[in-house]
Amino acid sequence: MLSSKYGKIEDHVLSIEFVTPTGDLVHTPAVPRHAAGPELTQLLMGAEGVFGIVTAVVVKLRKLPKRRAFAAFAFPNLRDGIEAGRVIMTSGLRPAVVRYYDQNAASHSLARAVEMPLEHNTMVLMFDGDYPELVELEAKLCKDICLAHGGQELDGRIGQTWWDKRYVFYYPPYAPELPSIWGTVDVVADFAHIQAVYHDTTAAIRAAVDAKWNLSLNTHFSHWYEWGSMIYARMKIPTGPENLSEAKALHDAIFKAGVEAALKAGAVLNDHHGVGMRLAPYMRDQYGVGMNLLNQIKRALDPNAVLCPGKLGLNP
Question: Concatenated DSSP letters for 260-278?
């Protein structure tokens, strides 16, 4: 949840030890930035076990910050909040958390989490660090940007409450359970495309579901970078078809509609949840002829096709 400032897993891994499918033990260079040829560590990042089995890893550790500050802002339309987030991230500011909820997600999932009524698109921000003066300055500068883009400052306790309860809703009684159907279409795009990705993806998901299934769709922009952002389009059907095949077909149809719309609008099919088997059918749409290269690497490292057959949509 802190990737806007600290990065994702590939930014935390310094080096790895892995076993190739043919039994070789490989140690990558001890640091992740060097000019000694291609970075082998990154070859394993996101490979989900198809190129080798990681047996040891060196990661960065960080001390807990001495100071945290929270803020929240409401925006009258989605576009203004996206633009505020873009300016924040491209101007060198680095809030540890930037989460921007569309009106539906704000008034439902976020409002329930923070136990306050919310009616508009809502951005939650968190700033942290060892120097309180810098934390407060960064918070002020981000506030100025949000206000300049039509944001209305909300009670800062919204951010603090969200932080304190951010994991509660992954567990009973809040987490969805069968016979519900649920899932998240998680895609990422640059700032030039992210708004279109949001609109096209959410519209496609809604269009894929008959009104009788009472679909709910809560979407937020959960991770931000200096080049773009991503969306979590979280869908839920309270009670799906009793027939398992029909239920699976409905789930497949929702993902197919959402992913294909996102790719067409200029997104990358996943930000950080991974591909696995669920998104494997869309890998060729994502990479095109680049899949041929990935298959060549797979065959070179795994000539006997023993690791994760079919994963990432790669051929045995």
Answer: HHHHHHT-BS-SSS--TTT
